[in-house]
Write a structure and sequence with these properties.
single chain, about 350 residues, alpha/beta, seven-stranded mixed sheet, two-stranded parallel ribbon, about 10% strand, globular
C-alpha cells in the first residue's frame, strides 16, 4: 500500500519497471503506468484486470501511423491534420464539458508554494511521462498534478471544439485545486491549454495565482524547416512516435487543427515564459544552424532561459527548469501575499 516513489522510483525507474512488466505480460503498457497506479497493490490489481479481460489488442494505427510519420518528417502538418481529422470521424465525441471527467495524476508532493497543475502537449509522447523528471526535482517542494487531455486513451471521446475541451479541463482543474492556491503550467502546445484554462477560470472568478509556459509557440508560428526539425527529434531521434496508436494519432491531429486559429487573450495572472538556450538538432541532413527558432509569446510576461533545447529542457535539464519554475513561483506568489 506504500507509493512506489517511497522505494526510490524516479522517472527512469518508473519507465524501467513499465518495460519489464510489458515484457512479462505481453501488453503495450503506457510509460506513465507507475504514476497512474501508485502502489504495488493498485498496480497489481490493474494488471490483473488487463490480463483477465477478453479484449482485442489495441489498434496500432496501421497505415495511419506510417502516413503520419512520413508527412511529419516533411513538415506537412496541414496534411497530417487533415488525415487525422478524417480518421477521427470514426471516434466518439463530446460537446458537453460536464460529460467528461478528465483523469488527474499527482506526481509530486510538497507544500512550499502554490499547487502546480499541468497539461500534456498534443504530441506523440505519453502525457504524464512528459513531466516525470520535473516532478522528480519538485518533490518535497511543490505539489505537481497533471490533468490528462480527454481523447488520448482508448475509450475516451474527442472534444468537438476548443470550448468543449477547455471546459472539461477547467472543471478538472477546479476539482484538483480545491480551495488551495494553485498555478497552471503548460509545455509546448499545452501552453495553449494552460492559457485558455487560466482565462476561463478568471472569467468564472477563480483566478490562478500564476501561469507558467515552457517554450510555447503560437499555433502555426513555426517555419516549415523548424517544424521538420522538431518532428525529426520526436519521430526519429527519440522514437517517441513508435508507440502511438490510432487513438493518440487522431487526437494529436484533431486538436492541433482545432487550435490552428486560436490566439491568447489578456489574462491577469502573472506569467512566466521559459525558453531553452539551444534549438533542437533536427536531421543531420538539414541542420538548424542560424535558424530563427526562438518562441514568441505576444502578451506581457516575465521571461527566462534554461539549459537544453525544446525536448531536453524537460528531460536531461529538467533540474534547471524545475528550479527556475519553483524560484519564480515562490518569489511571485510570496510577494503578492505580502501586505
Amino acid at each position: 500500500n506504500r507509493p512506489l516513489r517511497e522505494f526510490g522510483f524516479d522517472s527512469l525507474g518508473a519507465v524501467g519497471l513499465r518495460n519489464r512488466l510489458a515484457r512479462a505480460t505481453g501488453r503495450n503498457l503506457p510509460a506513465g503506468l507507475v504514476y497512474d497506479h501508485e502502489t504495488p497493490l493498485a498496480l497489481a490489481d490493474h494488471l490483473s484486470t488487463l490480463l483477465a479481460a477478453d479484449a482485442a489488442p489495441d489498434d496500432d494505427g496501421g497505415g495511419l501511423h506510417a502516413l503520419y510519420r512520413k508527412l511529419a518528417l516533411r513538415g506537412r502538418m496541414d496534411a497530417v491534420e487533415s488525415l487525422c481529422v478524417g480518421a477521427a470521424a470514426l471516434r466518439e465525441t463530446f460537446d458537453d464539458p460536464a460529460a467528461v471527467d478528465a483523469a488527474v495524476v499527482r506526481m509530486a508532493r510538497g507544500d512550499r508554494g502554490p499547487r502546480l497543475i499541468a497539461f500534456p502537449p498534443f504530441a506523440p509522447v505519453e502525457g504524464v511521462i512528459q513531466f516525470a523528471r520535473l516532478a522528480d526535482h519538485l518533490q518535497g517542494r511543490a505539489e505537481l498534478s497533471v490533468v490528462s487531455v480527454p481523447g488520448f486513451r482508448p475509450g475516451e471521446p474527442l472534444a468537438t471544439s476548443v470550448r468543449a475541451l477547455v471546459g472539461a479541463l477547467t472543471g478538472a482543474t477546479r476539482r484538483t485545486a480545491g480551495d488551495e492556491p494553485f498555478a497552471l503550467l503548460g509545455y509546448s502546445s499545452s501552453g495553449w491549454l494552460a492559457h485558455a484554462v487560466t482565462a476561463e477560470l478568471e472569467a468564472r472568478g477563480v483566478a490562478p495565482e500564476a501561469l507558467v509556459l515552457l517554450d510555447t509557440y503560437l499555433p502555426d508560428s513555426m517555419s516549415p524547416r523548424l517544424r521538420r526539425a522538431m518532428n525529426y527529434e520526436l519521430v526519429v531521434r527519440r522514437e517517441s512516435f513508435a508507440a502511438a496508436d490510432f487513438t493518440a494519432i487522431t487526437a494529436i491531429g484533431s486538436y492541433r487543427r482545432m487550435f490552428r486559429d486560436w490566439r491568447p487573450g489578456p489574462v491577469r495572472a502573472p506569467t512566466l515564459v521559459l525558453r531553452p538556450g539551444h534549438c533542437v538538432p533536427g536531421s543531420p541532413d538539414e541542420p538548424t544552424t542560424d535558424l530563427e527558432w526562438r518562441s514568441h509569446w505576444p502578451l506581457p510576461h516575465s521571461s527566462g532561459e534554461v539549459p537544453g533545447d525544446h525536448c531536453t529542457m524537460v528531460g536531461d535539464h529538467a533540474g534547471s527548469t524545475a528550479e527556475a519554475v519553483w524560484t519564480w513561483l515562490h518569489d511571485t506568489t510570496s510577494s503578492r501575499r505580502t501586505p
